[in-house]
UniProtKB/TrEMBL annotation:
It comes from Pseudomonas spirodelae. It holds the Pfam family Methyltransf_11. Its EC number is 2.1.1.197. Keywords: Biotin biosynthesis, Methyltransferase, S-adenosyl-L-methionine, Transferase. Belongs to the methyltransferase superfamily. It catalyses: malonyl-[ACP] + S-adenosyl-L-methionine = malonyl-[ACP] methyl ester + S-adenosyl-L-homocysteine. It is an enzyme of class 2 (transferase). Residues 57-150 form the Methyltransferase type domain. This is Malonyl-[acyl-carrier protein] O-methyltransferase. The keyword Methyltransferase applies. GO terms for biological process: methylation. The keyword Transferase applies.
Amino acid sequence: MTDLAEHARGGLPDKRQVAASFSRAAQSYDSVAALQRKVGQQLLAQLPGSISPARWLDLGCGTGYFSRALGERFPASQGVALDIAEGMLRHARPLGGAQQFVAGDAERLPLRNESCDLLFSSLALQWCADFAAVLSEAARVLRPGGVLAFSSLCIGTLQELRDSWQAVDGFVHVNRFRQFEDYQRLCGDSELTLLSLQTTPETLYYPDVRSLTHELKALGAHNLNPGRPDGLTGRARMLALLKAYEQFRQPQGLPATYQVLYGVLRKEVN
Ligand SMILES: C[S@@+](CC[C@H](N)C(=O)[O-])C[C@H]1O[C@@H](n2cnc3c(N)ncnc32)[C@H](O)[C@@H]1O
């Protein structure tokens, strides 16, 4: 796989399915989002120190944890929290942090041209098949001098689970991710100036495979790809999966690796 946009023709996870899955996960998400917290904090730390946005957007805000963090960091500014999942917005809205909570798609932002100074997006854009469209929308919506700071996931994420399923039945059981080089190329081709782009592996450990798959479901991030097998996972296949995953076991438990990407881009002042 080189670019998820190519998969759009064959069908990526349907956006309605993505929205429904995250809406269902709105109540459980925060209890299992330790990695998401860590990544979002690291993204916040990468914002240019000089930034003082009059209006910011938390793109793919989920339960709004980072909308609240942005609200605290920039108390004098106006905040917009946007997500494709209505259920997430219903959860986030009463908790505050932003002035507006908006349903929308990162590939087609329902915002006016040059209406924001900061677009912050943590671990949402890996769900977008057309990352070039996301960048083009960011360039449209940002004011000159504005910044897009995002984190996402690259290929290699959940590789242990992917390899284990591959050994069992060869089906796609793990969400697809872009390669780092594709992010690099798409950012380079965009109307924005790339300030930084790097990946960091993060590994979580689980006592068993069920704990990992339950957590993915509680996050709303379990597999939604076309090509996933329908119906119940048979007991024999599940036992084969557990056995295959055991080959990765380390003293801390079963590893699940995430290849986390951080990018910061700026819209130049002409
Ligand atoms: C893993 S959660 C991250 C939530 C939050 N940013 C955080 O760090 O806790 C991903 C969020 O992205 C949202 N999302 C997925 N695709 C989207 C799209 N095309 N446009 C806007 N939001 C999207 C999902 O509904 C979900 O709430």
